[in-house]
Amino acid sequence: GLGSIASTLAALCVQNVIERSGLTGLLWGASVLFLASGFAADTAYRIAIQYHFEPTCQDGTSHSACVTKVQQLQSTKSHSSSLMETSIRLFTRVPILASLCLEVLTCQSVSSIISFLFVLKAKECIPN
User: Fold this and answer.
1) What is the per-residue pLDDT across 41-99, written as a single tens digit (0 to 9) for each?
2) 128 by DSSP, 3-state: which?
3) Is the Cβ–Cβ distance between 12 and 118 less than 8 Å?
4) How far apart are CA 12 and CA 50, in angstroms?
5) Which one of 40, 50, 67, 77 is at 20 to 30 Å from 116 when CA atoms are compared?
6) Strands of 39-115, DSSP E
7) Apex 56 CA angle, 51 and 58, nearest 5
8) What percent of the chain clears pLDDT 70, i.e. is strictly above it?
9) Whether the Cβ atoms of residue 23 and residue 126 lie closer than 8 Å to each other
10) Cα–Cα distance between 8 and 65 in angstroms, integer?
11) Cβ contact 14:120 at 8 Å
12) pTM for the full model?
């Protein structure tokens, strides 16, 4: 979604940014954006905890307790069916999950292509 759009815009601007501020400026800009992203994520988690929006299980336990329960259930469950069989059954039962999985795979593929193009553009702009 938003990350793919931002990656596309960043890839389009690489050459202009390098021409104006050089490689050092590009790296500083990326560092600033990375720190801003970390700060925003930290703030979001703090707000979620403060206003009780943090993820919980259906029974009301905290997210970490829920993850522990799921891991315990998975370790005790017999592994008679393969991951592929389980996925096919799940996607057949809940078609929206199949669509979501396809969307995620598509977005990740596009993101990888954009990252590759970004590296190619950066390589063109950086002299040996």
Assistant:
1) 888 888 888 887 776 666 666 656 666 766 666 665 555 568 888 888 888 888 898 88
2) coil
3) no
4) 39
5) 40
6) none
7) 130
8) 76
9) yes
10) 38
11) no
12) 0.42
